[in-house]
Amino acid sequence: MRRFRKIVSAAVLATLLVGGSTSGAAASGGPTPVGSLPGTAAWLADDSLGRPLPDPATATPSEVATFFQGLTDAQRQRLVRDHPAVVGNLDGAPVELRYAANAPAGARVLAYDPRGRGLIAQVMGDLESAEQIAVIVPGSDIDLSTFDRTARRAADLQAQAGDGTAVIAWAGYLTPSGIGLDQATGRLAAAGAERLSRLTAGLDAAGLPDPTLFCHSYGSVVCGLAAARTDARDIVVIGSPGMRADGVTGLHTEAHVWAVRSPDDWIRHVPHVRFLGLGHGADPTSPTFGATVLPAADVPAHDAYFDPGTSTMAAFAAIAAGDPR
Fold first, then answer.
1. Which residues contact 247 (CB under 8 A, 6 or more apart)?
2. Which positions ≥6 away from 88 have C-beta within 8 Å?
């Protein structure tokens, strides 16, 4: 009974502590909608090409890429003009078309859905000519209203990694907001993992390099659930509450897995347990997990791993650039 109470207490503590920021912000805005994007019905009803357009809900990124390869430039531009919300969020569509479709949201926006709290993915650097690609997967409380945090980290990482590296700031899933059960369960992470795997499949369909995933806080839960379904070259786990796996072998990935946690990161207090769906399991920085652990003694807080001048940022840039010395 004592052990049972200890496990329950740990799971409750995980519920209260796990998050993506130290702010403890209350939930903001409405939920990000699921299901069809705006304009999907008109897209599917469009018979101007004499054949059906790929269903955004069922077509694979590879099938989408093949579809666009068979179009003329004029046909592609007309689809961008008539169906921007679909083309701009369609994994497998050519990068330049997605930028054009999302132009009102800013430069090099790879995905944009303003409904609810919103979803967005923005590219720093030249994605189409990049020799290396990195994707930053953020944790809790990141949406359109707070996306500047992730965008800033991506810009700093790209600048330090160099011109051959493009970095995608990916707020492409509904993150937990505020303090509550969502941080301690895998419900939102499972949905995010599906979206992340489609993103990486879209990069692959476009003939782009295998990405490195930088997964912060609750974002590492997303990456843990997506690992087996992505072709990531490296997975970097940052300030993690767990990846819903007992170790690297349980991720079923060929990626090199790195892990880092500062001694000053509050997330060290989160118990690494899983009980009745609560908690995210083993500590990725523990020796038994099997990840390569990076030093972080100079990182002062949970949100400071990407700060310029830190040892972690230098290591992240080297990994992103394909040179993890």
1. 282, 288, 289, 290
2. 98, 101, 102, 109, 111, 112
Which DSSP state fits 16?
H
Distances (CA, A) of 230 to 118, 198, 222, 302: 24, 8, 12, 26
Compute the distance between CA of residue 4 and CA of residue 325 in angstroms, rounded to an integer: 44
259, 282 contact by CB (below 8 A): no
Instruction: Count Cβ neighbours within 10 Å for each residue of 170-179 and write b for 16 or more, e otherwise.
Output: bbbbbbbbeb
What pTM was computed for the model? 0.90
The tokens for 125 are 């650097």
Which segments in the chain show pLDDT lower than 70? Answer: 1-35, 274-277, 325
**What does the alpha-carbon distance between residue 151 and residue 162 come to, in Å, rounded to a whole number?**
16
Which domains are assigned to the chain?
2-33+115-320 (3.40.50.1820), 36-107 (no CATH)
Cα separation, 300 vs 283, whole angstroms: 20
* Residue 156: Cβ within 10 Å count: 18
Beta-ladder partners of 122: 109, 169
What are the pLDDT digits (tens) for 147-176? 999 999 999 999 999 999 999 999 999 999
Provide the H-helix boundaries in 162-229.
181-184, 187-205, 218-226
In whole angstroms, what separates CA 40 from the centre of its chain? 24
